[in-house]
UniProtKB/TrEMBL annotation:
EC number: 5.1.1.1
Catalytic activity: L-alanine = D-alanine
One function term, GO molecular function aspect: acid-amino acid ligase activity
Biological processes per GO annotation: D-alanine biosynthetic process
Stretches assigned to the Alanine racemase C-terminal domain: 694-819
Protein name per the record: Alanine racemase
NCBIfam families the UniProt entry points to: alr, PRK11930.1
Pathway where it operates: Amino-acid biosynthesis; D-alanine biosynthesis; D-alanine from L-alanine: step 1/1
Positions of substrate binding: R586, M764
Stored InterPro entries: Ala_racemase, Ala_racemase/Decarboxylase_C, Ala_racemase_C, Ala_racemase_N, Mur-like_cat_sf, Mur_ligase_C, Mur_ligase_C_dom_sf, Mur_ligase_cen
ATP-binding found in the keyword field: yes
Upper classification of the organism: Bacteria, Pseudomonadati, Bacteroidota, Sphingobacteriia, Sphingobacteriales
Length: 821
């Protein structure tokens, strides 16, 4: 019997809600997202107001089987058998319910906050302590005002420890999370610059974070930080660590790289102790020290702590989506496995539309705190609920619970090796495969077998960032303004269905592509949003209509062609979009042509005008603002005339990315969001971290060579080192999109934390970097652009082009890998 079961009458009392109980129900699950309803009949749906009003989703959740709702208002819902608990603030009610639940259990709770490293430290503490504790923790990085209550809700009576992280972005948030988590032990991780814009000063930020520890017995934190904040520490006792100050409880006085490890020595209780960290990057070392200090503070011996820290494994909270063998898509989540993260990964699998068939490869789940029969029944229910078509279970426990799984196609194996031996028979083809396994099953071997071998140059796309960028622009829109997302040219180089799936799932209103083929490919990948085609070729009208794509009509010739086509096929009222040229002088009807256009459209039963739009030539540039105003005037004149003659209203749209923010009065009915979605907008300063580039381009070192001063490097003997030194040859060249203009020191790449210049001409598949004085080895990662070290805008500036060109130049042979957490 699980402990998070409440009668709905009990819930009503706990959250102090109004409304009537029409029928008694048992509540086990809490929902805040109508797209994710598992075990709907036993769930309670909170209609939160966010980007969209949660009340809009009540009817849909009811249709999916939910019968209990927490709402702000209710009488107009006429849904029989449903209970509506009415509260002033549904989010506060969710938090109150979680706080109540937390209070019922007497377990040791560690609360973690900080600007960076929270999730890693949480996962590592879990790895370090799970041998002797039954631990409940946040799934992935569920650390927000909504994520924390949902995490705390997972506590059951078998748990004797909880490890919860709390993330905040502005003031007055932490108090609420403290009331839900109530940690006795606090851990403060690295304080950096993340979320600085939400706080007036560093001081304000630190003090806000401290609020998590206001009732804690003990706080583990960096001594260096305390120097400025000693008087403000809320916890009764501190346990400090430092790499600088010997006064700290744990004084780490030395650190050396030994092969792929980092060897730390420290003084603790007047003794010298040591610890081997299996990572060498700065952030991991700091996170490992925080874990080390925490283990010591919890009373573990230095020997035991060292033994366990040495076995830490990397934490990947991200799902990786990549191309697989035989036209499969592979979602790789082979680092951790528990019920919550399984559910999250299955949701992501469910969002994929590119293949009909959905497959799950799952290993036994460890450390769930549940008896096996309960655990695997829940797993089986999830698998059924998420409509998995093919299930492959790996491990003895799954094998012995095979009768729980009611899936059309299923296979079970004792271990990973047995499964790999049967790879051929499993016949993976045209399916989306989720690989989810506990660490010890080494499912990375399966992912290596199923994912297409990546050329070692990779464009990484962060889908979470894509969504936060979308949210950023949505927050800049006037109420009711729709969003057309521009996904032309492979979504500015970022991918096809992968990006479109995400946008469709998160409800943009329209997509736009450049050519009919691009639109057809999206339809084949299961995209059903309206799609506008900017450059429809008459020769492909069959494809256009077959896939219900909407052409842009920009000239009389094109209009004629399309109307004749429609006539010949008995097509009527086909949706078209009319493009007006108001000054860009690329495509579109000019102002003097509008009258004739109106005549041709009037009473034309073959087409229906869905939208009228134009394009700004310089929406980003203040020096052209007068011109932009002229464009706006011309546009208004044109659509007014067209609407009058049509006798119906159409969707009107003008703004591209830069226009959305600079010309809010010209948002009309819809905006066309392009490069901003991918994180670039000259109208938004780079310091505004609400907008982030979604793509990072990475490659690796193929060879390192010592070069004497005066020797020449690359074609035409174009490069030279001034002094004796070293070059690294890396796996990217102009055929990958790293243009020749970057050669001879113009371009820079990041190697081992340092930006180094190119030497000599860029060649087709390779180029050379000056790495003199750096410790660089074959296989080392090289970053061409990312958000932290060298932004796309900087690359563009180096060779005198624009970010658009840098992005779309990345060639198709560079593999795209998508991350989602
Ligand atoms: C590409 C394009 C956009 C998007 O422009 P961004 O500057 O990338 O936002 C909008 N409208 C039209 C017609 C386009 O071709």
């Amino acid at each position: 019997m699980l402990n998070n079961q409440y009668q709905i009458t009990e819930v009503k009392q706990i959250i102090n809600a109004g409304g009537n109980i029409v029928k008694e129900y048992i509540i086990c699950a809490l929902f805040t997202d109508s797209r994710r309803l598992n075990n709907a009949a036993e769930g309670l749906f909170f209609a939160l107001s966010g980007r969209r009003n949660g009340h809009e989703f009540v009817a849909g959740a009811y249709a999916a089987g939910v019968r209990n709702f927490v709402v702000e208002y209710g009488p107009e819902f006429n849904l029989p058998e449903a209970n509506f608990l009415i509260v002033a603030d549904p989010l506060a009610a969710l938090q109150a319910l979680a706080a109540y639940h937390r209070d019922r259990f007497n377990l040791q709770v560690i609360g973690i906050t900080g600007s960076n490293g929270k999730t890693i430290v949480k996962e590592w503490l879990y790895q370090l302590l799970a041998a002797d504790k039954n631990i409940v923790r946040n799934p992935k990085s569920y650390n927000s005002q909504i994520g924390v209550p949902l995490s705390v809700w997972q506590i059951n009576s078998r748990n004797d420890m909880g490890i919860f992280e709390a993330g905040i972005s502005t003031i007055n948030e932490m108090e609420k999370l403290e009331a839900i988590i109530k940690p006795q032990v606090g851990v403060l991780t690295h304080i950096g610059t993340a979320h600085d814009e939400g706080f007036a000063s560093k001081r304000e930020k630190v003090l806000e974070k401290f609020k998590l520890f206001k009732n804690s017995q003990k706080l583990i934190c960096n001594y260096d930080l305390l120097i400025d904040f000693r008087a403000d520490v809320p916890a009764k006792e501190t346990f400090t660590w430092s790499r600088k100050f010997s006064q700290a409880h744990l004084y780490v006085f030395s650190g050396t790289v030994i092969a792929k490890n980092y060897y730390l020595r420290a003084y603790y209780q007047k003794q010298e102790i040591e610890c081997l960290v299996p990572f060498t990057d700065e952030a991991s070392i700091e996170n490992a020290i925080v874990c080390w200090a925490t283990m010591l503070a919890l009373g573990y011996s230095a020997v035991e702590a060292d033994k366990r820290i040495e076995r830490l494994v990397p934490v990947s909270m991200r799902l990786e989506l990549k191309n697989g063998i035989n036209n499969c898509s592979v979602i790789d989540d082979s680092y951790n496995s528990d019920l919550q993260s399984l559910e999250i990964a299955l949701n992501f699998l469910g969002q994929q539309n590119q293949h009909q068939k959905k497959t799950l490869i799952l290993s036994d789940i460890y450390q769930s705190g549940l008896p096996q029969d309960v655990l695997y029944q829940q797993v089986a229910d999830l698998v059924t609920g998420k409509k998995v078509d093919k299930f492959i279970g790996v491990g003895d426990a799954l094998l012995s619970h095979r009768e729980y799984f009611n899936v059309a196609e299923h296979h079970f194996f004792n271990d990973t090796a047995a499964m790999l031996q049967h790879l051929k028979q499993l016949d993976f083809k045209d399916e989306t495969i989720l690989i989810k396994g506990s660490r010890s099953f080494e499912f990375e071997r399966i992912s290596r077998a199923l994912a297409q071998k990546a050329h070692e140059t990779i464009l990484e796309i962060n889908l979470n960032t894509l969504l936060s960028n979308l949210d950023f622009y949505k927050s800049k829109l006037k109420p009711g303004v729709k969003v057309m997302a521009m996904v032309k040219a492979f979504s500015y180089g970022s991918g096809t269905f992968e990006v479109a799936n995400m946008l469709q799932y998160n409800k943009v209103d329209y997509l736009a592509v450049a050519y009919i083929d691009e639109g057809a490919a999206l339809r084949q990948a299961g995209i059903n949003l309206p799609i506008m085609v900017l450059n429809p070729e008459a020769s492909a009208f069959d494809k256009l209509t077959e896939y219900k794509l909407e052409p842009v009509i920009y000239s009389f010739g094109l209009l004629d062609d399309f109307v004749n086509y429609a006539k010949g096929r008995n097509i009527s009222s086909y949706r078209v979009n009319i493009k007006i040229d108001t000054g860009m002088h690329r495509l579109g009807f000019e102002n003097h042509e509008i009258d004739t256009l109106c005549d041709m459209l009037e009473a034309n039963r073959f087409v229906r005008v869905q939208s009228v739009f134009s394009h700004l030539a310089a929406s980003e540039a203040s020096k052209h603002d007068e011109f932009t105003k002229t464009q706006i005037k011309r546009f208004e004149k044109a659509f007014t005339e067209i609407e009058r003659s049509l006798g119906y209203t159409v969707i009107k749209h003008l703004c591209n990315t830069a226009g959305i923010i600079r010309w809010p009065s010209a948002q009309y009915d819809m905006v066309r969001l392009g490069i901003g979605l991918y994180g670039i907008d000259s109208a938004v300063p780079a310091s505004n971290r609400a907008l982030q580039p979604i793509a990072s381009l990475k490659t690796s070192v193929a060879q390192v060579k010592k070069i004497k001063a005066g020797e020449t490097i690359s074609y035409s003997r174009s490069g030279k080192l001034a002094k004796d030194g070293k070059i690294a040859t890396v796996r990217i060249g102009y055929a990958d999109g790293y243009l020749r203009a970057f050669g001879n020191g113009v371009g820079k790449m990041l190697v081992k934390g340092t930006l180094v210049p190119t030497v000599g001409n860029i060649t087709m598949d390779m180029c050379m970097l000056d790495v003199s004085g750096l410790d660089v080895n074959e296989g080392d990662e090289v970053v061409i652009f990312d958000e932290q070290h060298q932004r796309i805008e900087e690359l563009a500036a180096q060779i005198g082009t624009i970010p658009y060109e840098i992005l779309t130049n990345v060639s198709q042979r560079v593999k795209r890998v998508y991350f989602y957490e």
